[in-house]
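Hey L., structure's done. Input below.
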Amino acid sequence: MNENFIPLLKDRTALVTGASAGFGRETALLLAKAGAKVIAVARRAEKLQELAKEVPLITPLAMDVRASTSEWQAALANQRIDILINNAGLARGRESFELSKEDDTDLVFDTNVKALIRLTRVIVPQMLAREDGDIVNIGSIAGLFTYASGSIYCASKFAVHALSQAWRQDFLGKNIRVIEICPGMAETEFSEVRFGDKDRAKKVYEGLRALSARDVAESIVWSLSRPRHVNIQNMVIMPTDQSGVGQVHRRP
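Output:
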């Protein structure tokens, strides 16, 4: 870990959703190693316990990100949160819109949009009262560009992009940074969750070198490590083998 990260992150408390795997897990580890206290949130309690054993500064909190406002308020009562990382998110299905399922649509929007709004609404008042805080929303290049048979997921990430832009205006002058990180193709559990099929998920990344979870986590932590007067408003991170949505170079 770059020593320049330490002074700005040491002793700050970060809440990271979706921390049992992928971007969330790696971000929780890097933040803790930089001296931040981390509340790691996910549904899989056993994965969180494994994470907490690796770094003592990580406190596991087994919750579904879609929990109600009252459940979040109870879980975080009297807890100072300096950094909120809205990482939990998913996609379901890869069919054309007319074939998409209503249950999948509800799950995607409940997780990617409504839960993000609800949790931020619980935490942001304390940031406003202190006039200090960081909100990191994990978006996607799918929140900047659309693609066929991805309308529901794209719409959810376009919503995250809009929220990030609007919150910067709402919180202007309050010393609250809103950072949006928009990864391209990253090899995590994402495609496996989307398809429910490990073999099909592997084919998504065949022949190219995708981003790793650590690549994205390092970008998140780097953004947070900037001096308080610097806000990385939006960062798009792509593999070198990808130039855009659906534009990839695959090797034999």
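Strands lie at 13-17, 37-42, 58-62, 83-86, 133-138, 176-183, 234-237, 242-244, 247-248. Residues 2 and 77 are 33 Å apart (CA to CA).

-- N.
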